[in-house]
């Protein structure tokens, strides 16, 4: 099983790993795209980057980090990302087997596994670099890389990141309240809880997910599961 998590805008600074080594990353077929995007990002000075990334002066430090993508420190991807989903996931308490089954979608790296060592960066799935969308920059490469995985895939990425590399047979999860309305604010929190519960548990089918204790699932529509919270 492979669970693909969404990235987060918020990330932990620093790290104690060596600078980025593309050849050490999972899904090596994505390296040409990764290198090209890194190269484009580093062509912007900080002021230009802030405009392209549409961030305020308060986040200048994040744009500055993009100038150090190949020289700055790294840390495991699962520790790099922070925020609601990752708080609910609580990576430090997960088993080694759970870590083995987690990956993260990314505008910069396409998709990486939990232990891949990555630097701090700022780049969103909706950003345009030199007027090219992230979807056009990734083309079919993420889809092809994930389709090559001989695994049962649970795709918890948001719509923006799913469009960067759709996986036809992946299971997706919709989160609703008891009135049938889609949960937006706490969507990531509940997906983080679900990922925490099923990672490392030998899940291999939709039925296995539906049988997960502590969760209520209303329906299955094709490969989409609706979780009621």
Automatic annotation (TrEMBL):
Pfam families: H2O2_YaaD. This is Uncharacterized protein. It comes from Corynebacterium casei LMG S-19264.
């Amino acid at each position: 099983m492979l669970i693909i998590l969404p990235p987060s805008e918020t990330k932990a600074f620093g790290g104690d790993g060596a600078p980025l080594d593309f050849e050490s990353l999972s899904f090596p077929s994505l390296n040409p795209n990764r290198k090209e995007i890194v190269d484009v990002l580093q062509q912007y000075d900080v002021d230009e980057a802030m405009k392209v990334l549409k961030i305020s002066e308060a986040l200048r430090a994040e744009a500055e980090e993009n100038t150090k993508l190949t020289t700055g420190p790294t840390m495991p991807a699962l520790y790099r990302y922070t925020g609601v989903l990752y708080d609910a996931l609580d990576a430090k308490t997960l088993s080694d087997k759970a870590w083995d089954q987690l990956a993260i979608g990314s505008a910069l790296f396409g998709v990486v596994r939990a232990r891949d060592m990555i630097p701090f960066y700022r780049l969103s799935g909706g950003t345009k670099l030199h007027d090219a969308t992230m979807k056009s920059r990734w083309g079919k490469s993420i889809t092809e890389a994930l389709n090559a995985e001989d695994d049962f895939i649970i795709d918890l990425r948001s719509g923006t990141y799913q469009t960067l590399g759709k996986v036809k047979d992946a299971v997706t999860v919709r989160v609703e309240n008891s009135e049938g309305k889609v949960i937006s604010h706490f969507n990531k929190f509940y997906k983080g809880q679900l990922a925490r519960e099923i990672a490392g548990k030998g899940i291999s089918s939709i039925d296995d997910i539906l049988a997960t204790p502590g969760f209520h699932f209303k329906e299955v529509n094709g490969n989409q599961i609706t979780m009621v919270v």
